[in-house]
Amino acid sequence: MALRRLGLTRVAAAVLACSAPAATLVLGATPASAAVTVIHHTLPVAEQSVEPLGIAQGSDGNMWYTMAFRQDVARITPAGVVTEFPIPTFNADSGSMVAGPDGALWWVEYQANKIGRITTAGSVTEYALPSGGNPQFITAGPDGALWFSEASARRIGRIDTAGAITEFAIPGPNRGAEGIASGSDGALWFTDPLNARVGRLTPAGALSWVAIPPALSGVAVPGQITAGPDGALWAADDRSMIDRITTGGVVTEFNDGPAFGAAITAGPDGAVWLATGSNGIQRVTTAGVITNEATLTGQGGQITSGAGRHPLVDHPQHR
């Protein structure tokens, strides 16, 4: 399965990182009762060919994002002012980003096999994984630590805010885990796309599985995953399906049409939002009603929610 890359865009209720022809940060998507508005912020010329990837809202109220082919992490204010902060490792291939419980931003460095941390003042620290594994997605855990998936090793990693790393082996064939999210039940949930299942891992290391059944479009390929506003987990599936998984393991699937979901998040409006592989933004109610909210000009991958807005997106590309 190709791994997803991200870009930058902002929406007035959603923010997206989008690798458009001239890289832009697009802010858009207002509540469902209003028309969606997409606001583009053109990034500095030096960033327009580097694929902005992960994106998260910092404790300072600004958006922070990573870039695939640039040795920097950047901050963008609501007014569109961009400030870049260099990271020490060359060709780190920075990706998925999340706000940490310590007020800092944390992200994965896929090629460098490191986890990065930056304070809102711009102080950067990197933590090397003990044995590689290509960290791919990262989330804030229920235990005050950060948890991440490892794409080329069948492991889930945990890093505390002091930088101590623990890894948990995930049995099974094929590549490793992809998306990861903290569930309402106090466990970590992650996707195992090439084995058509979702895993549940407690902070103590107890592992169980939920199989995603095949549908008319074929064998399940769950990718990114998020905790929904209804207490369930929601996964974007490459078969043009959206998978809803309760913490008790009950699976419901919704067909999102030809635009397969590439990235997914819970919005502040009580719905789930997706960035699709066809450059669109979709809104899904917890009852499974899907509406197409916007079409973008770029590509993307990671999507997150910002205070007072709807989803923030990074439109996907393939690694």
Report on the structure:
- There is one protein chain.
- It is built from no helices and 32 strands.
- With 319 residues, it is an all-beta fold.
- It has a single domain, classed as Methylamine Dehydrogenase, Chain H, CATH 2.130.10.10.
- Strands 2, 3, 4, 5, 30 and 31 form a six-stranded mixed β-sheet that branches. The chain has a four-stranded antiparallel β-sheet with strand order 6-7-8-9, with no helix packed on it. A four-stranded antiparallel β-sheet has the order 10-11-12-13, with no helix packed on it.
- Mean pLDDT is 82; it is low at 1-24, 27-34 and 310-319.
SSE order and pairing:
Elements: E1 4-5, E2 8-11, E3 14-18, E4 24-28, E5 38-42, E6 52-57, E7 63-67, E8 72-76, E9 82-86, E10 94-99, E11 105-109, E12 114-118, E13 124-128, E14 135-140, E15 146-150, E16 155-159, E17 165-169, E18 180-182, E19 188-192, E20 197-201, E21 207-211, E22 222-227, E23 233-237, E24 241-245, E25 251-255, E26 261-266, E27 272-276, E28 280-284, E29 290-295, E30 300-305, E31 311-315, E32 317-318
Parallel strand pairs: 3-31
Antiparallel strand pairs: 1-32, 2-3, 2-5, 3-4, 4-5, 6-7, 7-8, 8-9, 10-11, 11-12, 12-13, 14-15, 15-16, 16-17, 18-19, 19-20, 20-21, 22-23, 23-24, 24-25, 26-27, 27-28, 28-29, 30-31
Give a short synopsis of this structure:
With 319 residues, this protein is mainly beta. It has strands at residues 4-5, 8-11, 14-18, 24-28, 38-42, 52-57, 63-67, 72-76, 82-86, 94-99, 105-109, 114-118, 124-128, 135-140, 146-150, 155-159, 165-169, 180-182, 188-192, 197-201, 207-211, 222-227, 233-237, 241-245, 251-255, 261-266, 272-276, 280-284, 290-295, 300-305, 311-315, 317-318. Strand 8 and strand 9 form a beta hairpin.
